[in-house]
Protein 1
Amino acid sequence: MSGRICLTTDQAFAAGFDEPCEHQVPNPAECPKCRLTEAEILRLAVLVRGATSATSPAPRAAAA
Ligand SMILES: [Zn+2]
């Protein structure tokens, strides 16, 4: 517990965004451990694609 109180979600987000990550890398986007790896991004992309296609009827089956 840091004892810091955030007033709004925007402030909380900004505070977390500006702080160094737990690996003491000033910019978390440059931290190899916090940053998403290419494999992780690909996996997420597949999940998103699966989620979006699941909500709509299969276009190929409908076209055939
Ligand atoms: Zn990190």
Note: The radius of gyration is 19 Å.
Protein 2
Amino acid sequence: MPGLLQNHVAAVTGTGSGIGRAIALGFAREGAAIAALDIDGATAAKTAADIRSAGGKAHHFTLDVRDRVSCRDTAARVASEVGRVSILVNNAGINRRNAFTGDPDAVLKDWQDIMATNLNGLFNVTQAFLAPLRALKGRIINLASIQSFMHVRTPNSPAYTTSKHGVVGFTRALAAELGKDGVRVNAIGPGLIETPLNEQVRKNNPDLVKIFLDHTPLGRAGQPEDIVGPAIFLASDLSAYVTGAIVMADGGYRVI
Ligand SMILES: NC(=O)c1ccc[n+]([C@@H]2O[C@H](COP(=O)([O-])OP(=O)(O)OC[C@H]3O[C@@H](n4cnc5c(N)ncnc54)[C@H](O)[C@@H]3O)[C@@H](O)[C@H]2O)c1
């Protein structure tokens, strides 16, 4: 049986780890050719190699999403080496968990770094791949968060919460503007997913994790694989009439 993403080329940022890696592997299982992008080229190479050994198609590229010129150059390389991108997953993101009232220099650096990756990166990569996405009636999927709607008071930076609110704004704005081209733009809002992004906080603050999970109807933390189904849904024709949506994959955290 052909996969749900047969004949698609998917560019996924942050594919070296966690959610991005799981999405890339899942899309490849559904037949998409993958451009695996990560600032850490070695981990992107590993994801691409794992896809190929499972019988899929993947190339890796070292890409820092903060670098606008590199985004443009990488998009050109992807077009010639993999094909025209019809699915873009803006997944690369960072977090640091310092309070606004902490050391002012550290807080400023967190703000600048988090915005540069989580928001400017989103802009840079989307702009770089816009032409093929418009030509092919493509799909854009952005990684939002519970913190796109609230501030979760496990140790967390205001910059991260602000950036993830911005992801939702960008998703809605592009959905409105690109709908006439047949491009669908949606976001996924994961809850607590066990990845290296939150490894330290899970290790150092088990009580806070418990408070978080006590509020989660499904009563467990998510795994990267829990985000793959929603991503395939949004990337495929299963969601042909869905745009501007934020699909929460948070064990129910946000709704209670
Ligand atoms: N894990 C969670 O609980 C959770 C919850 C909500 C949202 N998210 C979001 O999901 C996305 C993925 O998070 P994750 O948990 O898989 O994190 P992760 O740390 O496991 O993986 C992030 C990947 O992004 C890459 N990356 C970082 N900066 C980059 C840059 N400038 N350019 C290119 N690649 C870069 C890293 O090298 C890494 O491979 C992020 O946007 C994050 O904010 C995660």
Note: Residues 104-135 form the longest helix (32 residues).
